[in-house]
Design goal:
The complex is a heterodimer of chains A (about 400) and B (about 350). Chain A is α+β, with helices and mostly antiparallel strands and about 400 residues long. In chain A, helix 3 packs antiparallel against helix 10 and helix 10 packs antiparallel against helix 12. Helices cover about 70% and strands about 5% of the residues of chain A. Chain B is α/β, with parallel strands linked by helices and about 350 residues long. Helix content of chain B is about 40%, strand content about 15%. Chain B has 13 helices and 14 strands. In chain B, helix 3 crosses helix 9. The longest helix of chain B is centred in the N-terminal third of the chain and has 23 residues. Chain B is globular, with a radius of gyration of 22 Å. Classes of the chains: A alpha+beta (about 400), B alpha/beta (about 350). At the A-B interface, helix 2 and helix 11 of A face helix 1, helix 4, helix 5, helix 6 and strand 10 of B.
Chain lengths: ~400, ~350
């Protein structure tokens, strides 16, 4: 009996065991709380006669969506509308991330420039945009800048391009037979450029001779694609935009909602990324640059081969945060009528079907997995860039 | 440990029954807190709109005030929650508000599947289109190819889609989260057409810089019976809100108004009127209210005609004709069951 008690007390005195017990207790509490919340929800939904489930996704939606990159009409289902909104959210997030990165790198470097004017301009840009609310900036671009464009009847016209307050209209390409050949040539030339870069590296390591591999591969890609395009007899026809009674019709259109959200997201996040870039570059000891110069490397090569790889280690982790912020902030786009997930699913769909729990759950799932995939990718990239200690 | 789990579970179960039980007796909740929490729009002149001092006025506001007058004898015992179209049902379902009185259309799906109960219609409306006069458009049938702005999360979105599909016309939909933003997009020329219920069009037109530069097209493309909404499952509460409205319509029919109700109560010999105004018996008892519930509604808020004239009638900035919202005896469709 006493032996048992002793072993029991020593079992409890073990820090590892105690931690396990606490965690088990916590888990039980969390599950119970979750069960309580769920059953309470069910009971409340039942007493109020609110129907539940995901059946509504197969019913016709009946409402229009301004921008759809896949075929969509009012006769399609809520599920299809969800997909349309999902694609719109992805498109704005991915384009925003690319643009914000470019803006961030350029502005970050500009703020460190020795040129007084360039550095000051970058400082003003960064400090202004970082300190104004994003929603305000979206409204500014949408209601102040883009709305000030002329009415469709007085469109600004460049050849076949129309610019007015309904968007930017351009001829839309209709691909003919033979386009497959051009696309194939494009991908083959990309593959070839990898070999060119590898060959240049190997030759440089063997002989020390330098070859402008990046320029050469760019020329290859453009050249080969162009030649294929000519050989297959220009397999593209353009549908031209035309003025109609109310709008410009035909062709392709970049709607002002999309433009406003994209500009706001990328310039806002770009300002934050610029600061990350600046911090990353400043974190690299000046001695590294001096040592590189004393080896006779040019300023460009010093930046590319010595400073940037070290700076990236500092830049990438906070950069991940900025990418996540941008993806989540795209949900503000609904405020200026950009039909992203929140507007279409948590707005219209929720209101037409009344399925609050399901629609909000879907949106949480999407933003959760979008954020997780960005962060998984960035962690993988960070690991690749991390200092390998020997 | 086991007993603790049991304790926890039973506490949880009790808490669950309390929170579900509470939903059934809105009247008790309202009496306990001393005011009605009323969900209204974020600003539609004539229906629910706040002035610069935060005082709410409008037809939808008066529906809540009438209920407060019936319960407390005080039409001011109301607190207002401005809600966007997409927030409104969740706010009511979750118990954040007691009455949703926000130009909300009574539809089949909303009444049956959303856990809502519609009470009475306080405005019969229909959807229309507004365009700039200088476009030269005279009919909604000329709108092929137009860009149309509207507020999201409404029956408007669906009716608009149905209308253009039915007539095989193309259009570009610009759907904005809030009515004010949709109106701003229309005002800046992002779209050619603004669409919502016709009463809403008139209300929103009064907010534009030059109201006379815009016309409301003659077509009415849908039926939009608007009225206060309550949660499903509380019949007593639904009856109170419903009859607060019916009393106002009956009062207009009987010629009782806020200015003569005191006199009529003391002088009338009509037993129906005496019962209604609480001079005889207690008609309020079956609703759980005092004998003078109807008297208070009429004295403090007025009859339906007064409410209409005061908020949206021809002499207000909204300037709507009485039209089908007239009494059935005057050629309209306002018809309330008798108070017997």
């Amino acid at each position: 009996m006493s032996e048992k008690a002793n072993s029991n007390s020593s079992f409890l005195n073990d820090a590892g065991n105690r931690a396990l017990i606490f965690q088990a207790v916590l888990l039980v509490l969390v599950v119970l709380a979750g069960y309580y919340l769920f059953s309470n929800l069910q009971a409340n939904l039942d007493t109020r006669g609110i129907s539940t489930g995901f059946k509504f996704l197969n019913e016709p939606a009946g409402f229009p969506i301004l921008m759809h990159l896949i075929e969509y009409t009012e006769a399609n289902t809520y599920g299809r509308a969800f997909l349309v909104a999902l694609i719109n959210t992805f498109v704005i997030s991915i384009l925003g991330i690319i643009l914000a990165t470019i803006i961030g790198i350029v502005m970050g470097l500009a703020r460190l420039s020795n040129n007084w004017l360039v550095a000051r301009l970058a400082t003003v840009y960064i400090e202004t945009l970082r300190n104004l609310p994003l929603l305000l900036q979206m409204f500014f671009w949408y209601f102040a800048v883009l709305a000030a464009m002329p009415h469709p009847r007085n469109s600004i016209i460049f050849g076949d391009f129309f610019l007015n307050n309904r968007g930017i209209y351009s001829p839309s390409p209709n691909f003919q037979e033979g386009m497959g050949f051009v696309v194939a040539a494009f991908f083959i030339s990309i593959l070839a450029s990898f070999f060119i870069i590898r060959w240049a590296k190997q030759r440089q390591q063997k002989t020390g001779e330098w070859f402008p591999a990046y320029w050469a591969s760019l020329a290859t890609i453009v050249g080969v694609t162009l030649i294929a395009f000519v050989l297959s007899g220009f397999p593209v026809e353009f549908e031209l935009p035309n003025k109609s009674r109310f709008n410009v019709t035909g062709g392709m259109v970049l709607i002002p909602e999309f433009v406003a959200v994209l500009i706001a997201l990328s310039t806002y996040t770009g300002a934050f990324i610029a600061e990350n870039v600046r911090a990353g570059i400043l974190s690299v000891n000046w001695g590294q640059t001096e040592a590189s110069r004393s080896l006779g490397l040019s300023d460009t090569l010093t930046q590319r081969l010595i400073v940037l790889p070290q700076a990236l280690r500092v830049i990438i982790p906070p950069l991940t945060n900025q990418y996540l912020n941008l993806a989540k902030n795209s949900s503000l786009g609904g405020a200026v009528a950009y039909p992203e997930l929140v507007l279409v699913v948590m707005g219209t769909t929720l209101n037409q079907t009344g399925q609050a729990i399901e629609t909000i759950g879907l949106c949480m799932l999407v933003y959760g997995s979008l954020s997780l995939s960005i962060s998984l990718f960035m962690n993988w990239y960070n690991k690749r860039m991390a200092l390998v200690e020997r | 440990m086991k007993s603790n789990v049991g304790k926890f579970l039973s506490t949880a179960a009790i808490a669950a029954t309390i929170s579900t039980g509470a939903a059934a007796a809105t009247l008790d909740d309202v009496k306990a807190k001393g005011f009605i929490q009323c969900g209204v729009s974020q600003g539609v002149p004539g229906f629910s709109n706040a002035d610069d001092k935060g005082n709410w006025t409008g037809i939808d506001v008066d529906a809540c005030r009438a209920t407060a007058a019936a319960i407390f004898g005080d039409a001011q015992a109301v607190k207002f929650t401005p809600l966007s179209a997409k927030e409104r049902f969740t706010a009511l379902q979750s118990g954040e508000i007691d009455i949703l009185s926000r130009n909300t259309t009574w539809t089949y799906t909303r009444d049956t599947a959303l856990g809502l109960d519609f009470t009475a219609v306080n405005f019969y409306d229909g959807q229309g289109f507004m365009v700039r006069k200088d476009l030269g458009v005279q009919s909604a049938m000329d709108l092929d190819g137009a860009t149309v702005c509207t507020e999201q999360g409404t029956t408007t979105e669906l009716n608009m889609a149905d209308f253009f599909r039915k007539h095989e016309m193309n259009y570009v939909p610009v759907i904005v989260q809030k009515a004010d933003e949709a109106l701003a997009a229309y005002a800046t020329g992002r779209c050619d057409v603004f669409t919502t219920d016709k009463s809403g069009l008139a209300a929103h037109r009064s907010k534009l810089a030059d109201p006379s530069a815009h016309i409301i097209l003659p077509e009415t493309i849908s039926k939009e019976p608007l009225g206060p909404v309550v949660r499903h499952g509380d019949n007593q509460w639904k009856d109170i809100v419903t009859w607060a409205m019916f009393v106002q319509v009956n009062a207009e029919e009987m010629g009782i108004s806020s200015s003569n109700v005191a006199e009529i109560k003391s002088t009338s010999k009509d037993p129906g009127i005496r019962r209604l105004l609480g001079a005889e018996g207690n008609m309020g008892e079956s609703l759980g209210l005092g004998a003078d519930w109807a008297y208070n509604i009429i004295a403090e808020v007025g009859n339906y005609g007064e409410v209409f004239e005061k908020n949206v009638g021809p002499n207000t900035p909204v300037g709507l004709p009485r039209g089908i919202n007239n009494l059935w005896t005057e050629g309209g469709v306002m018809y309330a069951p008798p108070v017997r």
